[in-house]
Write a structure and sequence with these properties.
Layout lengths: L1 H18 L35 H4 L3 H13 L1 H22 L4 E11 L2 E14 L4 H67 L5 H35 L28 H4 L2 H22 L5 E8 L2 E2 L3 H17 L1 H69 L5 H35 L6
Antiparallel strand pairs: 1-2, 2-3, 3-4
Helix pairs in contact: 3-5, 4-5, 5-6, 5-8, 5-11, 6-11, 8-10, 10-11
Length: 448
């Protein structure tokens, strides 16, 4: 037996050493457009990025903190993502166990004229990873786990951004509802004033009807805003895993954000986004799947033996027969192995293209978010000036009307324009906040 086993073990040692040269470990591919992803965004290497802030540092509203924590605890999509991570961990454990021998037992018992006889025979088989199939399978499982963990993080960052956006949408709607109700009171006062002027013969029915029409229009807007608020609260409830309900909240004017956004953005931010990392880990997984497919062109070698209570019962001739059978297997499966290899290579190319496209999409999202933020800030400056001018116009037209130098329709027009300007300012406040949230998410913020 020793004469037979010695050359076999020597062969396995040589094959194992040579198999190391059959495969390469994964290396990130060169992406020629990475340095251009930010386009118009000022970049920085040493500055603190907005993505480095925790969500509690970025969002300073304590009520929003409570809502986000509820969402992280109760959201169904996030819980499903956690379960997927557990599934991937189990798969990785299974791939690691493939390196260990498989041991089973068979027992027999019987009786004859000579008395009771029995036997207990353990059987062991061990696949030698001579050509890297098990190693590459394990590396692929590691990448699959990392991709699943990145997916969970992507779900988490998206959830935080969505909860924050939903909350600030409610604050915007609250402010617009308050503006509309205040304007409604103004129109009711206008109707009373115009009715009195009409009785005094200083105006006509057309002015009264115009004021009433404006009042009805504001009432319709209030109904629409109240409906939107209820719908937004219902959507937020679903995000938090709660039944539809009202939420306590602060006002839009009290919200503030750190100035970190102005300090530049490191180029490493995009590559650290969860969805980008997920796409790369899928590429890694496909890379090792191609290695596994390549390993099918080489034989699989399995050592097996059986031992019983009376001693070793394995036959070296059986081992040699099994080894020879494994060596023959790739020859008879060349067509199948080539097809498997082709499919794996195509899937790896798909994963590479998806990785590149995910990076491009991330750069586009970050650029658009910063442009939106810059635009919203400029619009807010214009909104403030417009509101200041319109308030002056309302006051002046009222004075002119009292002196008989202006028609009341001019007052109504000025007040209507003021309402629209105040609603626009409220929307632009929200758009500024939304662009900060979008940029934070675009750079992978919200992991902690």
């Amino acid at each position: 037996m020793k004469k037979i086993l010695t050359p076999v073990l020597l062969l396995l040692t040589i094959v194992s050493m040579n198999s190391c040269a059959l495969y390469k470990e994964y290396e990130r591919p060169e992406i020629d457009f990475v340095d251009s992803l930010y386009n118009r965004i000022p970049t920085a290497n040493d500055y603190e990025s907005i993505a480095s802030l925790t969500w509690k540092e970025l969002f300073t509203d304590s009520i929003l903190h409570d809502l986000i924590e509820k969402g992280l605890e109760n959201n169904t999509d996030l819980e499903i993502a956690r379960l997927k991570v557990e599934e991937a961990e189990t798969t990785l454990k299974t791939s690691k166990l493939a390196f260990y021998p498989n041991v089973s037992f068979s027992a027999q018992a019987g009786a004859n004229q000579n008395g009771l006889n029995y036997s207990l025979a353990p059987t062991a088989s061990w696949e030698i990873d001579a050509f890297g199939r098990l190693h590459n399978t394990k590396e692929g499982a590691k990448a699959a786990l990392a991709a699943t963990e990145a997916y969970q993080q992507a779900v988490q960052t998206q959830l935080i951004a969505t909860i924050a956006d939903s909350y600030y949408t409610l604050l915007m709607l609250d402010e617009q509802l308050e503006i509309s109700k205040r304007t409604l009171n103004t129109w009711e006062e206008n109707i009373r004033t115009l009715s009195a002027l009409k009785r005094a013969g200083k105006t006509n029915e057309a002015a009264v009807l115009q004021a009433k029409a404006n009042k009805v229009n504001v009432e319709a807007s209030i109904l629409s805003l109240e409906k939107q608020i209820i719908e937004q609260e219902n959507s937020l409830s679903a995000l938090l895993g709660l039944v539809p309900q009202e939420f306590e909240r602060n006002d839009l004017a009290s919200q503030s954000f750190p100035d970190t956004l102005l300090m530049g953005l490191p180029l490493s931010s995009l590559i650290n986004r969860p969805d980008v990392r997920q796409a790369e880990y899928r590429l890694v997984e496909a890379f090792y799947a191609t290695n596994v497919a390549r390993s099918y062109f080489y034989p699989s070698i399995t050592l097996s033996g059986t031992a019983g209570w009376s001693g070793v019962s394995g036959n070296p001739g059986d081992f040699i027969f099994n080894a020879v059978g494994s060596l023959m297997q790739p020859i008879f499966n060349q067509g199948k192995n080539k097809a498997r290899m082709k499919v794996s290579e195509l899937q790896q190319q798909e994963a590479l293209l998806n990785f590149k496209q995910t990076l491009l999409d991330a750069g586009t999202e970050a650029n658009n978010a910063l442009v939106s933020w810059q635009t919203a800030r400029k619009r807010l400056d214009s909104d403030k000036l417009q509101i200041m001018y319109l308030k002056g116009a309302v006051m002046n037209t009222q004075l002119l009307m009292k002196n008989g130098q202006a028609d009341y329709l001019e007052v109504l027009t000025a007040q209507k324009n003021l309402l629209q300007a105040e609603l626009t300012e409220s929307t632009d406040k929200y758009m500024e906040i939304q662009s900060v949230i979008t940029l934070y998410h675009a750079l992978g913020g919200g992991l902690e």
